[in-house]
Structures are given as C-alpha cells and as structure tokens.
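Today's session is about reading a structure prediction critically. Students often jump straight to the picture, but the first step is always the sequence itself: look for stretches that repeat, for charged clusters, for runs of hydrophobic residues. Only then move on to the predicted structure, which in these notes is written as discrete structure tokens rather than atom positions. Here is the chain we will use throughout the hour.
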Amino acid sequence: MDEARVRRLLEELSGRIRDRAILWRGDELSGSDVDLVALPGAEAAIAVTLAAAGLEAERRVDGRVMWSAPDGSARLDVMPASAWPPYYPSLSGVGERARPGRQPLPVASEEDRLLILAADAVAGRPMDKLTRRMRPLLEAPGVSGRLEAVARKERRRTLAALAARPDRLESRARRGRLPYPAALAAAARSRAARAALRARVSGRAASLRSSEGQVRAARHDGLLVALSGMDGSGKSSAARAVAARLAESGRPSETAWARLGVEELRDRVSGPIKRLLRYRGTVADPVASSPAAERPPDAGARAGRRSLVAWTWIPVVAAIAAYSHRLAARPRHKGTSVVCDRWLVDSLVDLRVRYGRHRMAERILTVGTPRPDLSILLEIDAPLSAERKPGDQVERILREMEALYAELAERHGLTVVDARAPKEDVEAQVRALVEPLLGKLKR
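Below is the predicted structure for this chain, in token form.
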C-alpha cells in the first residue's frame, strides 16, 4: 500500500466522521490493508468518502466491505457495527477506551486488542500471527492492570488469561491453530469463548458444504434492499435512487411498498374470523391506526385494551405482514433486484404502536420476513416527521415511533443514514451503500 495515500484517506474520513470509526487492529499502515470498524451511523459517510476517492467496494459474506484502489495503492477493510462479532469486547466499550494514535482516526486500546486476539485464537485464526501481535501490546506501560480491569468489566477473564501468556498459547498450537480441546476448555469457562468456538465450528461447516457444492453464491439472485424510517424520511426518493443505480449497472430491478398486513388480504381474513368469534370493533389503537381527522374523541381512552380475541388476532396480522414481505421479495429469485419502501422494522414499529407489545406476533413477523442484502434506516426525529407529513400522526405516536425505530434498528442491525441532511446527500449515501453489493450480481 501507499502509506501516504492511505493517510490522506484517513484524514478525509476523520474530517467527515471525526471519531466515529476506529482502527481496531492497530494504527500501522505497513500491512496489506487497514482495518476500520464503523460506529453506528458512520458507515454511509465512509462509503461516500471512499467512493468519491475512486476506491471500489467488495462486500464480504460476513458483512465487511473491502474498499480498494484499482492500482492497489490503498485497501481499507471496513466493518459495520452490525457485523461486530459478539465474542469481541463490546463495541461501545471499545469506542470509549479508544485513544489517539499515529493516524487521524482513533485506535483501539492495547487491552481491547489483546482480548480481540485471544478471541480470534479460540475462533481458529492462525496462531503465529496472533502471538506476534500480542507480544508488543503486552509491553505497553500499565497494560496488565488495564487488561485485568477491562476483562472484569467485559466478563472476558478467560480470554484475558489466554492473551497474557502468548508463549504458552503458542506452545499449545497444533497445525498452527489452537486445538479444539483447548478451545473447548476455554468455552466451558467463558460465554465469549463459546461464541468464538461456535463461529469456528459454523465456519468450518460452511466451508465443507461449499467444497461439496451444496452452497452456491447468491450472484444468480437479485438483491433485496430494504429502506425503513418514519413518514417523511425520504424512503420513496431513496428507493428511486437505488433503482436508478441498479438500472445504470444493467441489472433488472423493481420497487415494492410493504405495509403492516396488506389491507385487502387482511380484510378478507378478518371478516370471517370476526364473524366466527362474533366480534365487532377494532383491535388496533385508534389513535395510531386512523387519520387524525377521523379519530373519535375518546380514542386515547379506548386504546390499549386487549381481549382474548385481540391477543389471538394480532399474530394473524403479523403473519399476513410477513407473507406480504415474502411476496414482495419473490422476484429476486428470478434475478430481479427488489428495492423495498418499508420492511421488517417498519412493520414491527407499526405492530407495537397499533397493538402494543406482543412477543409471539413479533417473533412470527421477524422469522417470516426474508432477510435483505442491505437494510437501511433513514433516521429523522418526531418534529421533522410532523413537519414533512403534517396531520399523519399525533405527537404522542410520533415520539413513540422515534424511540422504537432507534431501538429496533440497533437490534436488527440496520445501517443508519441521517435523513435530516439534504435530499441529494441522503441519496448519495444510500447509493454508496448499495455499491459494494453490485459485485454479487451476474449481468
């Protein structure tokens, strides 16, 4: 790599995202690539910056994106927050403990990198590389005490014990890796080690299936790109921007609009069920499910009641919504990419706002909805939603939706784009996020 060019790229990133990305494997620029982890909300800005600098993107199976200069002068391996392994120290903790280094972006602390390297050992990464990196980290002043303190806070004491003795770790290696008996011994004492071992076993199983021809690349299928967000966040215009980018690349695509329980299908199902149960009325909160002009005066007082009929009906609504999502995604199996305006998180928010918390219904909806290749949250706040879509919802509902979108987007690993920015900037960020996926598709 050209260290001068890579540093200039890091300076550009720092100017745009400040400290919202971390050099999590160290700040040396002498290797084959630079490893970045994007903190929540930074992935889109990183993609725009690197694409504008002429780098090309390749999305990996685990969610990472390799950005490379065509002449090989720069390679940045960008991991989104949603792909951060559960056996590493918590990403929030790594961010808090990161400190300035030799490069414009912050670098993960020595103690966090040691815990990461120990987890990688259990996960089956080559031992010589890991111990070679551990030794200089252990020489940093005060690192032993900090490692112990972080391990206690993060519940990673077993991994810390492995990292503290690289010579012993190296002596236990078989065929260049930590043997399974040693990995199992660590897993018996540590939840994080168990997660690392599961990743090792599942990765090995996937490799074997692939060698037998049982796993096929998804490039013959179209993409599924899902856009979520509150009303007024710009989902429709962003969907058009994605469809236009796919058209430019010569791939067939279509846009789809999905809402909680396709109304026509839901009405066909609800009529017979309500007649069978001799039920009249609505299960949903009338404040959330009706236009403002049509809400009855006592809507707030009636909202929230749940009878046995209601408890039974809500999973049906969730199943209908999941079915509508599956219908929307179906064309991708014939090579057509699908860009969805509203998806799983939107339906979960609607379900919670209209009907209240119903764990069974949420599980049905989550399991039954196809997983997109890319899920994006166009994030705005309640006041801006009310300004852009006046009269759609009352203030109480908008505030509740804002909190739910933030919670569910983090839980389901959505990439967050700040939709308060000008429309052109938002569309540019969305297009940049789609770019790494185009290599998966066959023309």
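Discussion point for the tutorial: The radius of gyration is 25 Å.
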